[in-house]
Input
Amino acid sequence: MINEKDKAADYTDLHPKRIGILGGTFNPLHMGHLIMAEEVCKHHHLSKVIFIPAYIPPHKYVDDLTDARHRFQMVKEAINENDKFEVSDLEIKREGKSYTIDTVQEILKHYGEECEVFLIMGADSLNELELWKDIKKLSQLCHFVIVNRSGFSTDASPRLAELIGDDVISDIEELRIEIEPVGISSTGIRKRLKDGTEIKGLVPECVEEYIRAHGLYSLA
Output
């Protein structure tokens, strides 16, 4: 939970920070998520990266979205040994659709307006940004860090540029990073589990153990 001392986000520290946010369904969390967070954290000298599981994603339909408490727990166990990674259940507690503008505002409220927020996302999410709630306001509250993903462009669409302005687009281009493609997706992992195929190496061992212990994703 958000007030747990071991890995939950501590909102009482009001010193200036460079805070990364990695949101998603984490259905389940996999090695690609951890590699992306690690690379961005290191490359942009972030104080911490907060993983925030969505309660309900607003822009995608997932017909086999496992219970939020399981997704939160899998993230918590997977990041337990990294002192720069934390997990927050603020979107789960809020319930309803998980809009990023609400989450970023809550982070800024607790950490103080002087902190810098870096929103980490894969290239597949870049041109969904034009559909996001209050995208213009969001672009003024945080930085967008785009990480390459095979098959997706890292160039912003003309429509997005029109909505958020050239200065923000320049910021996106400056912060963009490239990592070695990992070729892992939560969708693929769920399919492998349903098919009875091995997922070793695609998720942390603790996540695989959790999935098996709780019989998630139709795994007997």
User: Anything to note?
Assistant: The chain has a mean pLDDT of 90. The two ends are 28 Å apart (CA to CA). The chain has one domain: 18-183. The first strand starts at residue 18 and ends at 24.
